[in-house]
Amino acid sequence: MYRFLINLEVKEFFRSKRVGKRLIGKIALLIGFLYIALMVVIGGFGLHYGLKETMSGADVFHFVNYYLIYYFGILFVLFYLMGSSPSMRIKPLMILPVKKRYIISYFMMKLIFQFITLLAFLFLFSYSSALISDGYNTLKVLFWAIAIISFSVSLLLTGFLMEKSNKIVFLILVALLVVFILKKTGVINIPELSSQLFYIVYQKPEWLLVYLAILMGILKYTYDILKNSFYVDGVLQGKKENVQELQLQWLDRFGTLSTFLKNDIRMIWRNKRPRKTFFWSFYFLFYGAYLINSYVKHSDFNFSLVLATMFVTSGFLFSFGNYVPSWDSEYYRLFMSQDIKYREYIESKWWLMNSSVLMFSILSIPLIYFGIDVLLLVLAMAVFNIGFNSYLVLMGGLFNDRPIKLGEKTSRFQNTRGFNRNAFMLGMLRLVLPLLVFYGSMKIGGINLGVGVLVIIGIIGIIVKSTVLDYISRMYVKKKYALLESFAKEE
Amino acid sequence: MIEFKNLIKKYGENTVLNIPELIIPKGQSFGLVGNNGAGKTTMFNLILDLISPTKGYVMINGVRVDKSEDWKYSTSAYLDESFLIGYLFPEEYFLMLGSLRGWQKQDVVDFIKDFNELFNGEIIGVKKYIRDLSKGNQKKVGVVGALIGDPEFILLDEPFANLDPTTQIRLKKLLRKTVQDDQKTVLISSHNLNHITEVTERIVVLDKGNMEMDIVTNEKTLKELEDFFTVENIER
Question: Is there a single domain that holds both residue A471 and residue A391?
């Protein structure tokens, strides 16, 4: 029975309209996966022996257990952000004589054995191997590892259930709040708690049963939920979202542009895929701030620091901009037959992306904590992003002809675009160019000149906006039929 | 006026549409009939410049659609769901179209009021996104959307399909009213021979990309069409 289901999926893949590009994507993905897998395996070994070297004499395994809860915290966020609900075409199977439980188990297996969990398993495997090779009790380590795996899978499934039911999100929030209050009041100590929760399996293997019981419970619960919603309007088909109203009248003052801006804001807010992209862009901000924090001590404006100052404001610009105009692929034919000038369409995207740069610039003002120089560089990079990189992003859209299904939340890993040399070059350009400009002018006249040149280029870019946008729109017009055709194709 | 000049669309060696000459004068209601694959949708796509012709061209009011965008002021269409924006409320969709076509908000609101009967209370004010409406209601939204902004040329692909009987009759009434307006040129394709003969003044039959018949609608038209589409005839 499973062979039948797998067979269907293989056919679906190889008979899709873009099988060539998708195959290349998958192969690239596999190579990437193997590389990350290798890193993870090395990391597992490295964790144990590295810690052992730095803390001579202490029980490093026990120490790891102290911080395991943070690992699970990160893992949970990763699962939630990067993990994906498998997409399956359930409907045609529903009326066939295929037992529900096969389809549901198959679905759950796909859910559990995805890249991100496989990586987590690999990491655990290599870490446990390191422990065993270092003389820890094999059986006990094994029990511990199984407990950790069970817990990871339980987390994964919880993340999946969170998407399906607001009740669970609420429960988890309450639980987190309770933990937070207990921590504040000093009732519990989180590392202590963590060690008690996990190290105990190593000490008393019978505790493994608790973890298995939790896993079984969640598996059963997930299975039941899936089974009860095994209907055309059920969970497997995606749920209908709550209706949200947005007050966007304030945008009206922008004239025709406001029509598009309103539409884009609604598009982002009301659809899974773009909404996720929007939240992802905050990750750039935080990651940039984190990098700045780690590298600012060297104070010589090294590579990572400068790159980070660009990242903090460009998250949305890059992550959303990468998929212009595919965001509108579902109704591109409507747009093309309306009295719309490409120029206005492009300009509205420009405003949207650059408003985000402005927003992130404001949000990054606290970075003044790392010194006025850093903040100035961040703001200069923001101006450069607005006046230069935004055009590169829009031009990249010309090579971007894959339709996007707004309602489907694809995972970062599965989201492989066919490799396109031009798009890649433009992508590199917008990373490399600001660095070259900055370092080039810094070499000549110090940091102030570096910042100044970035700002000047950005401002020139803003001044010549209408010429550049005219040029870009003309290129889009040339691609019109090709875009219409490829947007009409199913993935 | 819509003019076709030596229009040919080929996919590889396969000619899917070949119209040497056709003129649809202003104010005419024009019906397009044909079996699946006859080229109806291709023809509409070519009029809207959504695909490029292999040879020849289409002109709307003397403007070549593939050379200029000026025809867009006067033309609107509803071909299929890709003309809808799923994440909007129907009201928002209408307002968006209105603002793109130069209408004030109040114009749109007043205009929409006339369709209360057609909408049957299932579309306006129900706080449902277009993607969550039934297929039939989606079609109503699309068809009414195509009427917004007082377009001179209106293209509707299979407007009757997927609609319940009551709505079909209401839509027919609505279309007849639109058609009577001398300023409006309406192009409708349909598989339903009854409806199309009732609504249009002229019917063109397409078969395998070629124009097989071009008739002014009269009492005998339905019979003629039925004769044409009997199996023997089409397999000839």
Answer: yes
